[in-house]
Design brief:
Disulfide bonds join 141-151, 165-174. Helix content is 29%, strand content 24%. By secondary structure, the chain is an alpha+beta fold. Among the domains are: 2-48 and 64-107 and 114-127, no CATH class; 248-317, no CATH class.
């Protein structure tokens, strides 16, 4: 019975997750369709009846601008580039709503188009909420700081309505800076933004470069600039030869280092190529003044005295 209950709870939880995802997808597709409808209105604004007797059509059917022909031209374009059944499913629900709006609103004032998302997806179909609202009942979102964060579920029928903070911001309303990684930069008397500390800093900073660190991060050390300012300077870990010297060479990176592979021709190297070898591996010979070019279809290489380099090459080619 316990196993059955746990399985039932798991299935119920999974259904809730899938249902929430479905609701979010419904709003997303409805919004895309509404946006495409508005785009198609713009694209067909100067279009007319195509082919046949357009004078007769306009005399007997009416202007193309408010015609059923234009409406269906637009409808046919909304999911034209989509192979997702979801788009067509949402469109099946929206088409009657769009047709009613076309006849009752657009035909009487086809220049004053307001947000089609609000008309199609919020008011008529309930797929979405107005912006700054969330959830099944379209409750009001928390007043998240801008910049700083955004409401979870904003404009959809899902979400918590709480603030999700951007990187560097914290607090319930995302109105504070994370002072361990960012610092406050006052743009004006009203607006303060959070700017990132330099990569060399740890424990906070007061300006964006290496001179503003409270402490230096691992891989960096205190030093003085030419102007006499204290700053955090990159440590060259390669000076301590941390890599396998017979197989790898060291590359210093900001705050760290990388061990990269030598050419298979090398025993020790200063770079990735056979020209960077310190010593040649068995079966290879160091050759000076070489030039390479394809030799036959098997792309083997031969050498001649032509340049000023040295390279470990297979002994069979020397």
């Amino acid at each position: 019975m316990v196993q059955f209950s746990l399985l039932t709870l798991f299935r119920g939880f999974l259904i809730l997750i899938l249902a929430a995802a479905s609701v979010a997808d419904d709003c997303e597709y409805c919004t895309k369709i509404a946006d495409r409808f508005a785009e198609s209105l713009q694209k067909t604004a100067h279009k007319g009846f195509s082919g046949g007797n357009t004078h007769w059509e306009e005399t007997n059917i009416g202007s193309y601008a408010t015609s059923e022909v234009r409406f269906h031209d637009i409808i046919d374009s909304l999911c034209a580039n989509s192979d997702n059944a979801w788009c067509f499913g949402i469109l099946d629900t929206l088409e009657p709503v769009m047709h009613t709006w076309w006849n009752s609103v657009f035909k009487t004032n086809h220049t004053g188009i307001h947000s089609l998302r609000d008309i199609f997806c919020v008011t008529a179909s309930n797929y979405c909420c107005p912006f700054n609202h969330f959830g099944q009942k379209c409750d009001v979102c928390a007043p998240c700081s801008k910049p700083g964060g955004s409401c979870v579920g904003n404009g959809t029928r899902t979400g918590s309505g709480l603030c999700s903070c951007d990187v560097g911001y914290t607090g319930d309303l995302c109105d504070k800076c994370n002072l361990l990684t960012h610092f406050e930069d006052k743009v004006n008397d009203v607006l303060t933004v959070c700017k990132a500390c330099h990569i060399s800093c740890t424990g906070g900073c007061w300006n964006p470069d290496a001179t503003g660190c409270n402490e230096c991060a691992i891989g960096w050390a205190p030093a003085f600039t030419d102007e006499g300012q204290q700053a955090c300077e990159d440590v060259d870990e390669c000076e301590k030869h941390p890599c396998n010297s017979s197989l790898e060479y060291c590359v210093n990176t900001p705050g760290s280092f990388e061990c990269r592979s030598c050419s298979s021709a090398c025993i020790g190297c200063n770079g990735p190529k056979a020209t960077d070898c310190i010593e040649c591996r068995d079966g290879y010979q160091l050759v000076k003044d070489i030039r390479e070019w394809p030799w036959g279809s098997r792309r083997r290489y031969r050498w001649v005295a032509a340049s000023h380099s040295a390279k470990c090459v297979p002994e069979e080619f020397t």
